[in-house]
C-alpha cells in the first residue's frame, strides 16, 4: 500500500482524523497570510479544539512542513518571517491518495483508452507536486486491485475535447455520423448540449438540425467533425436529467409508456439488487417472483435487455413490446431449426 509521512497527523490524545488536521492547518495558514496574527487560544476557540491540539498543529507546520513561523509579542500572534513561503502544493492522506489512484484506474476504462496518456501525466504531475510529503508506489497499488475494462467503442480524445469546448461556447458542430440502424453515413449540423457516458461509451445529446429535435448520437460513430463559428442559444427550459429520464439505458425512443416485466423467483433475486430505471417500481409476487414496472420510450433497448434473461423474464406490457419479443423468438427458432 501507499506510504505517507502524513499518517501521524492524527493526534494521539484527541483521536482526530488527519483530514481534520489538514483543514486546521489550512485555516491557520489562511489567517497568518491575512495578517490576523492568530494564536493558540483564539484558534482553539474558533475551531472548537483544545489549545494543545493547536500547538501540535503549529509544531507540525514548523517541524514537518518547514514553516518559518514566529511569534509577534506586540500583536500577540503568529506570522511568517518569510512572507513568500507557501504550503506544499498538495497535502493528502493515504486514503485520499488511494481514492485518487482508484479514480484514475476507473477513468482509464470508462473515459476510454485515448485518455490513458493524459491521466498518467496527471498522476506524474500530482506526485511531483507532493514535494516529499507523500511517497506512493502505483505499482504496489495495482497489485491489490483489478479493474475489468468494459467492451466500448473507441472514441478519439480530440473529438471529446472539441465537443466539450463546443458545449461550453455554445458553438454548432458539423459531424459525419454513421446511423447504425439504417447502415448509412450522413452529415449533420448539431447544437451540442451534453456529453453522456454510459458504461464507458460516450454519447452526445444535441439538437439535430436535420430532424428538428433533440437526439442522442454515439460519439464512436462520428468519424469527421468541425466546430463551426456559428453560435446557438441554449434552451433554458431544457433539462438533460428530465429528458434522459424517458430513456432506457441510452435509447430514448418515442413517448414513454409503462413497461411491465415478470421475473421468476430465480432471476428476481438479482433484479431486486439494482436500480434499473428512475421510475421503476417493484411488486413482489407469491412464490418469490416479482413484477418490474417503469416508464420509458426506449422499447428497442428494453427488448434487447429483457431477452438476455431468456425464460426467466416475461414481458406483460406494453402489447407492442410483448409482440416484438414473440416475433424475435420465432425468428430465432426458425434460425436454429434451419441449422439442424
UniProtKB/TrEMBL annotation:
Keywords: DNA-binding
Residue stretches making up the WCX domain: 255-333
Domain of life: Bacteria
Chain ranges of the WYL domain: 158-227
Entry-linked PROSITE patterns: WYL
GO MF term (any one): DNA binding
Name of the protein: Predicted DNA-binding transcriptional regulator YafY, contains an HTH and WYL domains
Natural source organism: Thermanaeromonas toyohensis ToBE
Organism taxonomic ancestry: Bacteria, Bacillati, Bacillota, Clostridia, Neomoorellales
